[in-house]
Design a protein that fits this description.
This protein has 226 residues and is α/β, with parallel strands linked by helices. It has a single domain, classed as Vaccinia Virus protein VP39 (Rossmann fold), CATH 3.40.50.150. It is 28% helix and 30% strand. Strands 1, 2, 3, 4, 5, 6, 7, 8 and 11 form a nine-stranded mixed beta sheet that branches. The protein is globular, with a radius of gyration of 17 Å. The relative contact order is 0.15. It binds S-adenosylmethionine.
């Protein structure tokens, strides 16, 4: 028989109690701020104007909201994520901190459309099959800036590996891709943006093992050309 359960059954982010608990603590401000969240928020601080909208694409439970609030960055925060249980965590906890629950939505990039002033996407595209379609969507949607933190290096590398850190007995695989940096930057430019690459503050240009596989974190800061 054909079933419609494929996304949820094969989505690694729906199969880790450890990740859910971590994302719950982050939403409740019981964890230290992620270094990358601080770096992204500091870059945005000088560029966000009152009334601007910001989309956190692949937001988990939406904890980047705290990084904006703590710096009084005057953006209206919206988060979308494909994992319903992670969005549920944010919708339950973040209203306590002033975020309307409807600002967090379960949505996959394929279905995403509309316009915002800023898009932030961190630690997401490296785990997808490729970057072109989602990144193109973010660049189309963003009136002002796009901030990316992804694994990039001189030569691309594409792996599809078992995630050994999921709940017991869940044998799922995930993409661990490092995208070719110059190609990604050219792609961003071809969509009408100037882009710079910033060193990732946490990893200082050194590979970092995540689920036992090296990630080459880079920040790409894109500003729409006038
Ligand atoms: C590693 S987590 C990163 C969460 C957060 N951005 C951070 O930096 O902590 C990747 C997130 O991307 C989401 N995601 C993966 N594929 C997606 C898709 N096609 N559409 C929307 N979200 C997606 C996952 O559900 C997961 O919450």
């Amino acid at each position: 028989m054909i079933a419609r359960t494929g996304w949820l059954n094969y989505c690694i982010w729906e199969h880790s109690e450890t990740v859910k608990q971590l994302y719950e603590r982050r939403a409740a401000l019981q964890e230290e701020e992620m270094t990358c969240a601080a770096q992204a928020a500091e870059w945005l601080a000088g560029r966000v104007q009152p009334g601007d909208t910001l989309l956190d694409a692949g937001c988990g439970s939406g904890y980047f909201f705290h990084s904006l609030a703590k710096r009084n960055i005057p953006a209206a925060y919206f988060g979308i994520d494909a994992a319903p249980s992670l969005v549920e965590i944010g919708r339950r906890i973040l209203p306590r901190f002033g975020l309307p629950e409807e600002n967090l939505q379960v949505l996959r990039f394929d279905d995403l459309d509309g316009a915002v002033d800023h898009v932030v996407c961190m630690n997401v595209l490296s785990n997808l099959d490729n970057y072109h379609r989602p990144l193109e969507r973010f660049l189309k949607m963003a009136r002002k800036t796009v901030v990316l933190r992804e694994s990039c290096k001189e030569q691309g590398e594409y792996h599809y590996v078992v995630d050994k850190y999921l709940d017991d007995g869940v044998p799922l695989k995930v993409h661990v891709n490092a995208y070719p940096l110059a190609e990604v930057m050219d792609f961003i430019r071809s969509c009408g943006f100037d882009v710079t690459c910033e060193m990732d503050r946490r990893t200082q240009d050194q590979p970092e093992n995540v689920i036992d596989h090296p990630h080459y974190w880079k920040f790409l800061m894109a500003v729409r050309r006038a």
